[in-house]
Amino acid sequence: MTARRTLFYFLVAIFMQSGIAAAQDGALGNISFPNSGAKAAQADFLDGVKALHSFQFDEARFAFERAQKVDPSFALAYWGQAMSDNHPLWAQQDMDAASAALQRLAPTYAGRLAKAGTEKEKAFLTAIETLYFSPGDKLQRDFAYSEHMARMHERWPDDDEISIFYALSLLGTVRPGDQGYRRQALAASISQSVFAKNEQHPGAAHFIIHSFDDPDHAILALPAAEVYAGIAPAAAHALHMPSHIFLQLGKWQKVVDSNIDAYNAAVEVNKKFGLAEGREDFHTLSWRAYAYLMLGQFDDAEDDLQLAKATLDRNPDSAMVHNGYLNIRGRHVLESQEWGDFELAAADSMEGSNANWVSVVGMSAAHRGNDGLAKEAIARLAMLRQKAETGGNEYAAKQIAILEKENMAVLSLANGDKDNAVAYAREAAQMEMRDMKAPSGPPVPMKPAVELYADILLAADRPVEALAAYERSLQWIPLRTPSISGMAKAAAGAGDSATAEEMLTRLKEMPGISAARTTIR
């Protein structure tokens, strides 16, 4: 038995022995956070902290504001509101809103410290000061904040809230393209330690999942994924987060089920608090639609696409909604292979500047024999790549460069130039595996380049090479159903009937799979 598998069973034993069915002390979990605030403000304050742990940032802000009304001198209630304006895993901060919240407590840092009732509370206020106002850009401030939380953790090692916020601070320093796993491993270790003491701690379960959210480590988060929704059933994000691990493990029907609940919860939260559409609701909808596509449940995926379109119709000026819709629509086209007669919109429009959608327009044009439009799309992608490079967004530029190569490969294949098609696709696959991190959700680029390389090898009548490429694709994104079915077809073409049958059996045994995904196309 491998060490990883041994650890997995150890965690299962811990979690299941604890009997974690649902939080007993509320719908957001159960934590302990002693402080000097008024007794009457404690319930709202704790709800705010628990909402923070499940990334329900709006609900957290409202809860902390309620606590402030009960106790206007409650220093940590203002700290919490400022924390709700920082979204660590997306490198987002609303500095103006956080500053306004803190200044309501006192106009200066020294004045705020004077209102903190304990040394620990002063340390939390220093932490928030570091997070927002220390020198440097967001990443430098994130590192400075994490270093401060490390010192707090060292001083108060038995304080679970300090431990959990320290674990999250470590994850908050990770950026796309970063190499190594040390910070995630430390965050996982801390979160597991807290979970072993308090099996209903929402942050512990949540950050275990984020720490292990990659193909190599996902199995270690399965116990937390299985119970997190029951710990904080009032949090849409808590209902969604288990699907991160279910996706990595190819449990597509569980991804669907998680995001049915999460989407409904997010819609209700939007209605309850009058929040803008296009955030947690669209995030969960996009995951659900992708899982439906993986199962070959194309009609259900189409229904989700129409839900997204209706949201766009209600919010025509929302860039977030518009881009979310284009991404859901683009995945639907790619996975269903319903190549449409799309136009390439102006470069300054939402459709014309969304690289993923431009790529879909180009691939559709190539499949439909419209070489001119396909070449225009490739040129547009080059322009968008150059814009990302000029703007200093190196990771986005690399993603767009992969899309360029993918489109060049598809166009070459459509024109019968199999050698160039294979060469372009090989370049895209090499770039993806060299420059990108394995996806922690629906893949970006939306058509995995390693899978496209295998597809093109198969179309170029090179099934043996295609078989090996599909194997690499499934190492990159485990249990992605188009790669499994492609591998079955490649194996059949290579005369490897045993592997072909094994792949088809694997598909047929997936809960929720449709016939569209269990036959060789």
Q: Can you describe this structure?
A:
This protein is an all-alpha fold and 521 residues long. The protein folds into two domains: 3-246, Alpha Horseshoe (Serine Threonine Protein Phosphatase 5, Tetratricopeptide repeat); 295-462, Serine Threonine Protein Phosphatase 5, Tetratricopeptide repeat (Alpha Horseshoe), CATH 1.25.40. Helix content is 70%, strand content 1%. The chain contains 27 helices and two strands. It has helices spanning 3-17, 42-53, 57-70, 75-83, 95-105, 109-114, 119-133, 138-155, 160-171, 182-197, 202-211, 218-231, 236-240, 242-248, 252-273, 280-295, 298-314, 319-336, 350-353, 355-367, 371-390, 394-414, 418-435, 449-459, 463-476, 481-493, 497-508, and strands at 86-87, 92-93. The chain has a two-stranded antiparallel ribbon. The longest helix has 22 residues, at 252-273. The radius of gyration is 24 Å and the shape is elongated. It starts with a helix and ends in a 13-residue tail after the last helix.
How would you concisely characterize the structure shown here?
The protein is an all-alpha fold and 521 residues long.
